[in-house]
Design a protein that fits this description.
Length: 107
Amino acid sequence: MAITLTDSAADRIRHFLEQRGKGVGVRLGVRTTGCSGMAYVVEFADEIEESDTVFEVDGVKLVVSPKSLVYLDGTELDFGKEGLNEGFRFNNPNEKARCGCGESFSI
């Protein structure tokens, strides 16, 4: 099981953590919502639970709960800018469909 991170995503996460001044990394997850069923979640991680899996890429810790790891295995987290929009992108090989607005997905 693995989750990877592009250089631009690692740089952005490090920047956010430095600005925030605390935290061990970011927590990646999924939640039930939207027209396709699930949405990705990115939050600051202030602590690591015993049941969490931690991936460290370029000095950045990605913290994932066992429930979310099933859906995120093999995912690459990227960060990009397009015009005035910027944000994290999940390149997940497990996705089977994505809603038209791009906010939710199904497996």
